Amino acid sequence: MYIEHRRAGIARTLLAVVLIIIFVVAAIGAVELSNNSSHSSTSSSSQLSSSSSSSQSSTASSGNGTLTIDDFLFQGNNGGNVGPNVLYGSAAWPQWAEGSVYQSLIALNLTAEQNNNQIQFLPDLASNWTVSPDGMTYTFALRQGATFSNSDAFNAYDVWTQFYMEYFIYANSTSFWEGSSIFNMSAVQFGLSTMRELNQSGLASPSQQVLSMMTNQAWPVYTTGPYTIVFHMNSPFDFFLGTLPGWLGLIFDPMFVLQHGGTGPAGQINPYFNTHPMPGTGPYVETKIVAPEYAQFEKNSHYWGSDLTAAQIAANPILDPGHYNTIIVQDKSDDITRYVDLTSGTSQISAVETSDFQLIQTNPAYGFMTLKYPAGEERMSMNTQTSPTNNTDVRLAIVHALNYTQIIDDAVFGYGVPMVGPETPNFGAYYDPGNVAQYSYNVTLAEQYLTAAGYPGGKGLPTITMSIDSAALSYEQPQAEIIQLDLAQIGIKTNIVITLDSQYYSYFGPYPYELANAQNIPNITFDGATPYTPDFMTPVDYWSFFVTNYTLFGNYAIYNNPIVDQNVAFMFSSDDTTAIIQHLAVAEQQIYKDAPYAWLYDAQLPLGSGSYAYNKSVIGGFYADPNLEGVCTVPILNTIYPA
Q1: Rounded distance between C-alpha atoms, residue 351 and residue 331, angstroms
Q2: Which strands, in side-by-side order, build the sheet including 524-525?
Q3: Between the CA of residue 326 and those of 64, 296, 300, 407, 619, what are the distances in Å?
Q4: Looking at CB atoms within 10 Å, which of 87, 96, 584, 630 has the fewest?
Q5: Longest pairwise C-alpha distance within the chain
Q6: What is the chain's Cα-based Rg?
Q7: What is the DSSP string of 399-454?
Q8: What letter would DSSP give residue 245?
Q9: Which range has the worst mean pLDDT, 17-31, 547-561, 608-622?
Q10: Distances (CA, A) of 569 to 77, 562, 584
């Protein structure tokens, strides 16, 4: 999979490592759902995007001038990729164009997700879909009449081409699809010569030679007509739908890519698309990029959903044609500047943090986004491969020495949900299947574990290094200082080290990479510029990434237990939900005993120490990223409506 998104700011810095270190990874999954059904799984909600948003956003304005948003990071400003270039998927985090420019085959019902903690899949660029009885084949009927913003037709041949482009970009890795190996790619022969042939043929009406390739059912994805695309998997995979609204499911115009230099060689992104956005099918077009300062979006005159009724938009809010003629999103790295822009009216929505956020909190004229059902997980990771945190009793002493309530109150202003990992509470039955609950704050028990470890009162224990990301000082520094005092109570001395954001992620990557570099990884680390959030709405984003030895990213503790690996892997070999949850219960109970992480909280503020603030007399509402800040930071642009 791509390396974890910022999940913190610049967390895709090891993408090149992932493309070089290719190995098979167990398949990932998403919440088990059939089309158009709901599951009490995951969600996020804001004060803005409650029921009022779903009703107000159902009447798109013909145009309300210009909307300006201040963000804390320029789109795609990580992994060396600055701009909207989505060829490497999440290397473009944050992707301001999600939903408004780039749509998916299917959409998450934002109202159900963000207000009611349910997942419902709705039609987007696919008008409907079916799943074979064996759960291995998904057939999508595509929407007819949709075009890209440059008037290129949208059809199954575009979807087919994009799928294999992404396979090629990820160096023909079988685990290219969100870190999974769910497709049998052994018969696939797709490369630079294929793309030259596609460019010559065109995708609106491909040549017979190209069609014979596109309809070849020996390949896992194939077409059966201009508006039908089929995805065939290795085994039953009920979770496939949940991957589509994520990074690899954002549809762009592959013909535009072919006509402008192609993808570039495998593992080398074509930089042309950093400043020349690929056309999408959504209600907006990204018309101007001044990197790394701002991007400008204009209404798409070719949007297929321009005539949707109020009722249709209310039923599927992400299809909203939009409420502003022009939207400008700008990177303002200084928090005071963002606050002043908001309060002076220079911007209408601003990312506001720390003391400035407290000013917003106390001013009734302003509102701010909170995630009602968040999935932003803040973990304290302990290096299980180096002393002294390679001692299980030391780790158990640490997790029971922490005052979790104080951490939530002081670091994130009380906007945190207590939890136990690796899953977040919004994933329903996949959360806490082992019924272990959060580690207790129990100093006596912590002292007992430290004595059992051979360090009574901390005697003989070396000072432990605790590293925090320079981009996350606003909330990681206060929580680190609380943790430092908590651990001092039982005799554990710590040294807080502030590490540059660009360096912070050089520690992490695929499990073998981390294992080989374990001595260079601090004893204690956190999640980076913001808490870890999903790249796709599946329960195994966290299960497979945080605690297994087949992860491509996210296992900061370098944790490895065969009981956990085997039981988590069962998620990818069975469609029996009850059995899967039983296996996860065994895995979680083992993880709880081993304590590789202290699960601090599930963050309700998308910025950790702040949120997206707005003047309530100017902005009426909006919806958050359907991936709960894992793809986009700012609100979904076309859903923002005026007061």
Answers
A1: 10
A2: 416-417, 597-603, 376-382, 524-525, 464-469, 494-499
A3: 8, 7, 10, 41, 15
A4: 87
A5: 77
A6: 24
A7: HHH--HHHHHHHHSTT-EE---SSS-GGGGGGSSTT---SPP--HHHHHHHHHHTT
A8: T
A9: 17-31
A10: 33, 10, 9
Q: What is the pLDDT of residue 6?
A: 37
Three-state secondary structure string covering 185-228: CCCCCCCHHHHHHHHHHCCCCCCHHHHHHHCCCCCCEEEEECCE
Task: Tell me: pLDDT of 38 over 50.
Answer: no
Residue 278: which pLDDT band, with cuts at 50, 70 and 90?
very high
Spatial CB neighbours of 55, under 8 Å, sequence gap ≥ 6: 314
Phi-psi region of 65 (alpha: psi -120 to 50; beta: other; left: phi over 0): left
> How many Cα atoms within 13 Å fall on the side-chain side of residue 48?
30
Distance CA 606, CA 597 (A): 21
Helix (H) or strand (E) holding 56, with range, is: helix 51-56
Angle at 601 between CA 600 and CA 602, to 5 degrees: 150
- Token look-up 């079988």 returns 174
Alpha-carbon gap, residue 527 to 543, rounded angstroms:
16
Q: What is the rounded average pLDDT of the residues 607-614? A: 94
Which tens digits make up the pLDDT trace of 66-110?
999 999 989 887 655 678 888 887 778 899 999 999 999 999 999
Q: Which of 230, 253, 256 is nearest to 154 (CA)?
A: 253
Kindly state the average pLDDT of the residues 207-228: 98
Is the distance from CB of 6 to CB of 93 less than 8 angstroms? yes
pLDDT confidence of residue 32? 30
CB atoms within 10 A of CB 437: 11
Q: Between 394 and 554, where is the model more confident? A: 394
Is 508 in contact with 514 (CB distance < 8 Å)? yes
- Quickly tell me which residue has 């309060």 as its tokens: 343
Please state, rounded to an integer, the average pLDDT across all residues of the chain. 88
Query: Encoding tokens for residue 214?
Result: 């596109």
Q: Hey, what's the torsion of the CAs at 318, 321, 325, 331, to 10 degrees?
A: 10
| Dist CA 180 CA 641 (whole Å) | 38
CB contact at 8 A, 571 and 238: no
Neighbouring-strand partners of residue 120: 38
Position 9 pLDDT exceeds 70 = no
Q: What is the dihedral of CA 399, 400, 403, 408, to 10 degrees?
A: 40
Residue 47 clears pLDDT 80, i.e. is over it: no
pLDDT reading at 163 higher than 80: yes
Q: Quick: pLDDT tens for 344-378.
A: 999 999 999 999 999 999 999 999 999 999 999 99
User: Stretch 436-440: mean pLDDT, rounded?
Assistant: 94
Which SS3 state, helix, strand or coil, does residue 281 take? coil
| Element (DSSP H or E) covering residue 581 | helix 577-594
Residue 585: which residues within 8 A CB-CB, separation 6 or more? 433, 434, 435
Q: DSSP for 92-141?
A: G-S-TTBTTTBB-SEEE-HHHHHHHS-EEEEESSEEEEEE-TTS-EEEEE
Sequence-distant (6+) residues with CB within 8 A of 112 are 38, 43, 118, 119, 120
